Please model this.
Amino acid sequence: MPIPILHCDRNSKEELSRFLSGAREDLSTATNRILPILEGVRNRGDLALFEYTEQFDGIKLSELTIDPKSVKTNVDPKIKEAFLRAKSNIESFHNAQKRESWSQVVDGNRLGVKYTPVPSLAVYAPGGKALYPSSVLMGVIPAKIACVPSIQLITPPQKNGIPEILIWLAQILEIDRIVTVGGAQGIAAAAYGTQSVPKSEFIVGPGNSYVAAAKSFLSGQGLIGIDSPAGPSEVCIIADKDANPKWIACDMLSQAEHGEDSSAILLTTDKTLAEKVKDELEIAFVERPKRLSMKQKAIYENSSIIVFPSMDDCIWFSNELAPEHLEIQTKDNESVFAKIEHAGSVFLGPYSPVAMGDYISGTNHILPTARGSRIYSSLGVDTFLKRVTFQEVTKESLETLYPFVKLMSELEGLDEEHGTSVKVRTIGQK
Model:
């Protein structure tokens, strides 16, 4: 069952609609299952965390937190070198996002913005087969640059203990503590706070559907801030006849490797390229059979190659799709990029696979999915900064502007107190 090749234009609404409507993960079932867990943590704190960890992870904990500084690690020096190089690149990119408070004079008054960090952050790191230590770098580094004062790592316990790589990262990133509780109960611990786990105001990081449901529900209750509502991983590739079909197939499969619900969509104007990419995918399934069933399901059921009549049509549909990752592999990448309005992160040219951004180039890989890039941005320093506006009004300006305040407050029926609060400060009033 090879990947489908569709021939579409802007009127092909029926064929294209499934890519626009099926992206967001349905968390309703997961939400119903996690609500008792959240309630249990809120009411019983540490006791509930011990019980749920034994029930869901099969591990009987003696403590819920670890001080990273108290643990000796023996991480392979070559792995250290890779993560330190990534850390340096991520820091360089995010340091450029620093914000400075500012003020200016408007109509005689000093107005401005003061930037303040969120008070605390929890970074979730999955365990087991879904171990993503790179996401710890992505979550913590911009928060450190934003000067978030308190950061804790939430991760499920493993039968052999917390992975050394996570402990070492917690050490070099100066994370305050590791909370050895995963799943919805770990998210609840960060949102509510317990006897052992301090409350966090913000939480970021990938996780399964129960983690995503807990983040979304608790965010909706106003208990925590989150990065953005999450769905399956996705890539969209805009390519022309000069693109390398083998490379494109590899990039599509790198997303399929995340899970069977992932999607990879190629948009092109060239029928020959479409057929070559289709063939390269089948070759790859034979040559690289690891996680074969997962990759095949993602490619055959959630992905597609779409041939459009023009490059402008490819760009139009990419903007409709608003993908998490967008690769542009065309003769004139910059002219295509100039027309892109919605994407989590864009990868320009043949030597910019998504995997570079996932690990080492320096941009953040915590990105909006499920068309979320129409309204959300990638995780960055701004994610952890609040804008506090301020003003200092002069006596002269207050007296000059009072007549306008009087008229506007009367129009809104608020002149008795709003208008009076300005009037009593004018000349002749006490």
Observations:
- The mean pLDDT is 95.
- Residues 406 and 420 are 8 Å apart (CA to CA).
- DSSP finds 16 helices and 15 strands in the chain.
- Residues 394-423 form one domain.
